[in-house]
Amino acid sequence: MNYFYDEKLHREKVFRDPIHGQIIVDNQIIMDLINTPEFQRLRRIKQLGTSSFTFHGAEHSRFGHCLGVYEITRQMCNYFQRNYPCQHPDDGLWDDHERPVALCAALLHDLGHGPYSHTFEHIFHTNHEQITRQLITDSSTNINKILRRVSPDFPHQVASVIDHTYENPQVVQMISSQVDADRMDYLQRDAYYTGTNYGKFDLDRVLHVMRPVKSGIAFEISGMHAVEDYIISRLQMYLQVYFHPVSRSMEVILDHLLMRAKYIYQHPNDFEPDFTPHMLMPFFNGKFTLDDYLALDDGVLTTYFIHWTHSRDEILSDLASRFLNRRPFKSVIYDKNTQKLLPTLRKLIQTAGFNSQYYTAVNDSFKLPYDTYHPQDSNAQTQIELLQPNGDFIELSQVSTLVASVSGREAGDQRFFFPKEMLEMRNNIEIFEPIYEEFQSYIKNNHIINPKEQK
Fold first, then answer.
1. CA 264 – CA 276 distance, rounded (Å)
2. Residue 400 and residue 226: Cα distance in Å, rounded?
3. Is residue 110 domain-shared with residue 135, that is, in the same domain?
4. What is the rounded CA–CA span in Å between residue 296 and residue 41?
């Protein structure tokens, strides 16, 4: 790791940032990673995907978020080294030789995200975490070549932090835990750019009550209320921003738009023989390279969507227009009792002239605000440990009634999406009026109801 420190910049570089004020880079390795084409591509990937259709300020990129996660991790390293430096092996304190791998993993943790990543992944069966690891470990990438300047096995060490197998749990929990640099940056950043206050919490206080321990990272019990505030802020951001029904509706349209394009490409004789979106064809075929993946960004997809508004296929053209011009589907909440009514609603929508495969969808969004550790779970969460004055640890929900009240309880809803036209009176198409009226009889106060039970 000495090579990392040998490449210290003579004069530190500063990125002005609306969240952290200044993001400081004082190492040539970090600067060179930022300047790679693979990392610069993140400027062209929105952090919040379709949320900008709901919160118009949410145009920020994954580039800014990755820099922010790096900066928070840098501050953690500085604080740990100043206050809890390792005195001898296995004392559970901070070994600053871990700084290079922590900073590089923080900077590169989202490197493999694609355009509108979660929707894109669903349609084309890609995995941004797997691609992140590939970009770090593949010897052909600029990222890998720079990381190998530190040591031959350094790229694999960085990748192991991202897939949670790195030997030092302190480093892993810095980047991925229930209170990590990733979450702390995106909550503050997303709150700022969406113009909301839900995600704001006392970041400085949380950082200053952290301390390294043998099992990872713990928090001084005196800072419990700052951690509580963080947990509740995260819950509110999910419910008010990330799970917003309009953003989810635009994701549904995007999903169905790409699904229709894939179907047309795979059935050229039935639709458009000349339908050849070259940059997407490797993904339609299920055989893409890293270069194919890196060539895509939000702008590439948007350009195709503009072309598709003129498609001879009415469904593709209409869905592209709905997405580009922000014409979201409407949605209503359903539960296990009204779920049985969904086939009836789909049939009415089909009868009204909409292909129910492309013009309806169900979407459930739930989040655990805080989860205690269950070792039997396949993806068990590291719980938040508080350090008491006598040196004993106690799990957060054991002493926080606020966190206990939300611990292990999923928050969110299940929604059925459909064209807004189904709620409008179509006076110009009288033959469909009875269908619209029957459909609307199943909707009350944004919920699906059984009209027979209402009488």
1. 10
2. 11
3. yes
4. 9
The mean pLDDT value for 379-396 works out to 84
If one counts every other C-beta atom within 10 angstroms of the C-beta of residue 219, the result is 22
Q: Please state the separation of Cα 42 from the chain's center in Å.
A: 14
How confident is the model over 205-255, as pLDDT tens digits?
A: 999 999 999 999 999 999 999 999 999 999 899 999 999 999 999 999 999
Amino acid identity, residue 411?
A
* Residues belonging to the chain: 455
Same domain, 182 and 266: no
Query: What secondary structure does DSSP assign to 157-193, as a single string?
Result: HHHHHHTT--S-HHHHHHHSSSS-HHHHHHHHHHHHH
Show Cβ contacts of residue 234 under 8 Å, excluding neighbours closer than 6 positions.
Answer: 183, 187, 199, 369
Cβ count within 10 A of residue 103: 26
255 in Cβ contact with 361 (< 8 Å): yes
The Cα 311–Cα 328 span in angstroms is: 20
In the prediction, which pLDDT does 378 show? 44
- The 3-state DSSP class for residue 200 equals coil
* 223 and 274 together in one domain: no
In the structure encoding, which two tokens stand for residue 67, read together?
């820099």
Query: At what angle are helices 181-194 and 224-237 packed, to 10 degrees?
Result: 50
Cα 170 from Cα 218, distance rounded (Å): 9
By CB neighbour count within 10 A (0-12 exposed, 13-18 middle, 19+ buried), where does 452 fall? Answer: exposed
CATH number at residue 287: 1.20.1250.30
Q: What is the pLDDT of residues 150-208, one digit of tens each?
A: 999 999 999 999 999 999 999 999 999 999 999 999 999 999 999 999 889 999 999 99
Give the integer Cα–Cα distance in Å for 368 and 186: 17
Domain, as residue range, for 265? 244-327
E runs forming strands in 150-284: 210-213, 216-220
> Do 221 and 123 reside in the same domain of the chain?
yes
Same domain, residue pair 264 and 134? no
Supply 287's token pair.
């055989």
Task: Provide CB contacts within 8 A for 353, sequence distance 6+.
Answer: 432
Instruction: Provide mean pLDDT across the span 136-150.
Output: 97
Quote the DSSP letter at residue 383. P
Give the integer Cα–Cα distance in Å for 81 and 117. 36
